[in-house]
Amino acid sequence: MPVPASGAGELPFFVYGTLRPGQDNHDRFLRGRTAGEEPARLPGAVLHEGPGYPFLAGGAGEVRGELVWAAPGEYGALLSVLDRLERFTAPGHPLNLYERRAREVRRARDGSAVRAWVYLAAPAVRLGAAIAGGDWLNRPGAPEPPLP
């Protein structure tokens, strides 16, 4: 899939939990706002259990997810809605649940690097157990995907 065009400074988003295709928050917050999505991975990270959603933190692992590009004209609205969903107010804000950071993400198809926004657990967050394999959709106890 070709990379959708974006405006100056408009990074794609790396989603790794409930915003992934087939998950509830994908349908609620991303449907109709994206120009493209493709499988990707984030090296140097570990996925952790949270209260119904995951947390991502730095570490010696790899997390699987998707790169998501905003549809034309949707970038500002998408950035705003995702910041609210992830309870990100401003860098280092004491009430943040997540911190939004630009990171190098690797495309699954060819390993090429793409700079993307990633929501990482804020420092005050208490992390749950690490999810083996770094894949929210394939974690132990994950619900079976719906039949087509």
TrEMBL record:
<dbReference type="InterPro" id="IPR009288">
    <property type="entry name" value="AIG2-like_dom"/>
</dbReference>
<protein>
    <submittedName>
        <fullName>Gamma-glutamylcyclotransferase</fullName>
    </submittedName>
</protein>
<dbReference type="InterPro" id="IPR036568">
    <property type="entry name" value="GGCT-like_sf"/>
</dbReference>
<dbReference type="Pfam" id="PF06094">
    <property type="entry name" value="GGACT"/>
</dbReference>
<feature type="domain" description="Gamma-glutamylcyclotransferase AIG2-like">
    <location>
        <begin position="13"/>
        <end position="137"/>
    </location>
</feature>
<dbReference type="InterPro" id="IPR013024">
    <property type="entry name" value="GGCT-like"/>
</dbReference>
